[in-house]
Amino acid sequence: MTTTLSSLLLLALILSTVIVGKPSNETFPNLLEEFKKQLDKWRENLVEIVEYLYHSLIEFLKAVGRMVYLTLGIVGFVLWTTGFSRYTGRRLLYGAILLAFLIELLVQA
């Protein structure tokens, strides 16, 4: 990616030199500074986008995890209290408690 970007920058510089002529000492540093400022803006925007996606993904995983451990807990409780499958119901309850612990306490983003 860096080589592609530097190749494109070199090509743009060559084309601007051919079209406009030789850049003066005053124009070239300003052009370079503007280019650096624009790259900094793009980097800052990219960082903001990645942070937003990270926080959105964490919130989504928390919501899905909560639905899963609530469902496991309810199904486990029903199986355990009705006596239909006490051992499976108890395992589902333990799993729901462990999952709730992991999601609520350890995934603090």
Structural write-up:
The chain has 109 residues and is mainly alpha-helical. The protein has one domain (2-106). It has helices spanning 2-20, 27-82, 86-106. α2 (27-82) runs antiparallel to α3. The chain is rod-shaped and about 85 Å long. The mean pLDDT is 83.
Question: What are the SSEs and their pairings?
Answer:
Blueprint: H1 2-20, H2 27-82, H3 86-106
Q: Tally of extended strands?
A: 0
The topology string of helices and strands comes to HHH
The number of distinct structural domains comes to 1
Distance between the termini: 31 Å
- The rounded Rg comes to 29 Å
- Average pLDDT rating: 83
Name the helicity range. over 70%
List keywords for this structure.
109 residues; mainly alpha; 3 helices; 0% strand
Give the structure's gist in a few sentences.
The chain has 109 residues and is mainly α. The protein has three helices and no strands.
